[in-house]
Amino acid sequence: MIYNAANYMGIPWEILIKEYRKKLKDNHFPKLIDYQTDFIKYLHRNISLINPNRQKNMLLFLIDFIFKDLLKGTVDENLSEIEKVRTIKNKRIIIREKLYQKLDLLSEQLQKEKVLKDYENFTYQNFIRGIKTEVNDLYQKYYSHLAISVDYKKKLLNIIFFFVITERFIGSYTGIVFTGYGENDLYPSCYPMKVGEVFNNRIRYAPIQKDIVEIGDSVSASIKPFAQRDVIDTILSGIDSDLESVIFDSFHKFLYNFVNKLSSDLKTKNEKISNDILNIVNIKELLDDYTENILGIQRKRHINPLMEAVASFSKEDLAELSESLIYLTYLKRRMSFKEESVGGPIDVAMITKGDGFVWIKRKHYFDLNLNPNFTE
């Protein structure tokens, strides 16, 4: 299954997957993960389909996006503070200082990110070679008015380098989901991955570790939504993710305001106690405990009972459940002002160890009765 971007460096995924199917023929692998590994090898073998100029242009497009996104994010996050000052000069000073803070934090975070497999021996010199002039032009386009120091310019370029070579995906990518069985697998598995651009004949790809599922003794059932997953997550967790975020943010502000008001009210009577309250009360710790408590209730009352029920469902019930979850997403889109990007006839397929891959429902863009050779 694929979601998000439908093209791979301009080539439709449908073509690549069907060409891979022709080459695979009747070959089988012992484990499901082996199919994912073999598919990546197939992409590497066909790297010549993407010419060097296109690779360079896509890299510059990504760098342009990161430059713009970092600056826009800095401004958006500090808009209220920026708007308080009147002169353009002072606004730029605030933006520059906030950008420095953002770059310091990102630099620290990205150093800990796992490097993509194809980029393990890829150096900054490899990255900048052949695009130095264009990168400098992009830098001038977005940051020349901020008068950034030499050290922070280096840090900014280094952050862009790490965005390219690490699993901290930014920009466009395709989600590819491998699910089913290998020849020796008794139970099904699900191995999703992200595939991004190709640079220097190296593919940006990485497994989505948090969404890997291996059914077995420790995991009896799983529901894994991909792409537009908000409605399904609501059904699983028992609360809308947007509402959940508002509740946590509101509680954090409440705690912060409560502690500060308590300290402020006591300050006139006993300054030592007032200061002790600010130092003793750990708002982050209280918030973490609150969050963990809510998540525990969600697991106990919603997620675990649902998974226990799913584990005992018949094949027919599972197919109906899958279709219903997609339909509910479509229904919510119709009831809201959001773009109706989920809808129409729903494809449903079942994969079992005994019967293999079976279509339960499948739509076609043509009349099957007029195309007997397709069915054959």
Descriptive account of the structure:
- This protein has 376 residues and is α+β, with helices and mostly antiparallel strands.
- It has three domains: 213 residues, no CATH class; 93 residues, no CATH class; 62 residues, no CATH class.
- Helix content is 57%, strand content 12%.
- It contains 14 helices and nine strands.
- The strands form three sheets. Strands 1, 4, 5, 6 and 7 form a five-stranded antiparallel sheet that branches. Strands 2-3 form a two-stranded antiparallel sheet.
- Helix 3 crosses helix 5, helix 3 runs parallel beside helix 7 and helix 10 runs antiparallel to helix 11.
- The longest helix is centred in the C-terminal third of the chain and has 29 residues.
How is this structure best summarized?
The chain is built from 14 helices and 9 strands. The chain has 376 residues and is an alpha+beta fold.
Estimated share of beta-strand residues: 5-15%
SS summary, helix count: 14
Strand count: 9
The residue-averaged pLDDT reads 89
Major beta-sheet overview:
5 strands, antiparallel
Summarize the topology.
Layout: E1 2-4, E2 7-8, E3 11-12, H1 13-24, H2 32-45, H3 52-77, H4 79-84, H5 88-111, H6 124-128, H7 132-143, H8 150-165, E4 174-180, E5 189-199, E6 202-207, E7 213-214, H9 230-237, H10 241-267, H11 271-280, H12 283-311, H13 315-335, E8 348-352, E9 356-361, H14 372-375
Antiparallel strand pairs: 1-4, 2-3, 4-5, 5-6, 5-7, 8-9
